[in-house]
Amino acid sequence: YPSEFLMQKITEDNQIPVHLHVSVSLQYVAGLKGRALVEFFHSNIAEVENEELRHLMWSSVLFYKTPNVEVMACVLLSTKAIYFLLDDSFIHTDEHQSDFWNKENSDCENSSFHLSCCFVLKLNDLQSVNVGLFDQYFRITGHSADHILTCLTRDSYNTHTFIQQLMAVLSLLARTPSPEPVDKDFYSEFGSKNTGKMENYELIHSSRVKFIYPNEEEIGDLAFLVAEKMDGLTNLPSLNILLYVLAFQVNHFEGSAQNTSSLQPKTLILTSSDLFLFDEDYISYPLPEFAKEPPKRDKYQLADGRRIRDLDRVLMGYQTYPQALTFVFDDVQNQDLMQNLTLDHFGE
């Protein structure tokens, strides 16, 4: 152990997304290749001597207790646990995290020694995995609020690969089998389902971990919500969502020294007539079992919306993936001016 194929695969996956900035400590990890990467895992991260590193992925991470702070992480999946090597800038972003993270490394800040926080979720504590719409993200749920986090991969391939690797590793766990199901009669089987709402598609793994996928109703609910935001167009017989993608909105700050830009996470939704940007809550829904009250904000909050007919041009950059797109809209004060003129002039 490990095989040459696995080492080559982990080395290929060990690349930080080019548009995201990380701390020096994570840049060091991203520079490791092959056997050096495996040895780094065993000497610095692994908690058990005989555990094997199976998969590596770079992803943005959201914690249930700090839903507004998205942090870059190196996600390492082994045969015993999931490790999240976090960007050390995360520790200083929120003052309310002192009970969540131990700040014992403050004396190391000014030295050449770089220390990263590592969040560990043991596979035995894993209860469920919720996969987001179109595999753009997934939420991992443990036994408490401290053990709920969302990986914002923004990439269906990365999500699919991680889920497959996780299922393979969970198959190795020796868990006590679940008790035999009690035979249900006809009335108890069908009489309790009076909610009128279809449950999400659940796959219960042999390790008793639930993998929950969204059903068609989630798209229907999203289409209804989008229709509500479209002024005067709510009577459309059919509203089709053509595209749902997690993206970043680029905000430019013009400074004296150099122009800088920040990336604001947004959910982009394209319909046949409009383009929308939403602020989406990726961590709070569906509600965990221990939640005593609903989240403070809705799952989708409209940030911006424009009509496709007002779109003047789309500018594309020449850089490699991820591609930057600039949408230029006509800024017309009275949006229905042209439509009214046409009706008056040509039609009775």
Can you give a write-up of this model?
- With 348 residues, the protein is of the alpha+beta class.
- It is built from seven helices and 15 strands.
- The protein has helices at residues 4-13, 24-30, 34-45, 156-170, 186-191, 216-229, 337-346, and strands at residues 53-63, 66-78, 81-86, 117-122, 128-131, 138-141, 148-152, 201-204, 210-213, 241-253, 260-271, 274-280, 300-307, 311-316, 325-329.
- The strands form three sheets. It has a nine-stranded mixed sheet.
- Helix 1 (4-13) packs across helix 3.
- The protein is globular.
Q: Helices and strands, in N-to-C order?
A: HHHEEEEEEEHHEEHEEEEEEH
CATH superfamily of the largest domain: Pleckstrin-homology domain (PH domain)/Phosphotyrosine-binding domain (PTB)
So what's the overall shape? globular
Strand order, main sheet: write it out: 4-3-2-1-7-6-5-9-8
Largest sheet: 9 strands, mixed
CATH architecture of the largest domain: Roll
Indicate the proportion of strand residues: 25-35%
| Percent of residues in helices | 10-25%
| CATH class label of the largest domain | Mainly Beta
Computed over alpha carbons, the radius of gyration is 24 Å
What's the average pLDDT?
A: 81
Number of H- or I-type helical stretches = 7
Structural class: alpha+beta
Instruction: Give me the oligomer status.
Output: single chain
In the predicted model, the low-confidence regions spanning at least 5 consecutive residues are 191-198, 337-343
How many strands?
15
- At CATH level 3, the topology of the largest domain is PH-domain like
In the residues, how many domains can be counted?
2
GO cellular component, one term: endosome membrane
Domain Nischarin C-terminal PH: 241-347
GO molecular function: kinesin binding
Subcellular location: Cytoplasm
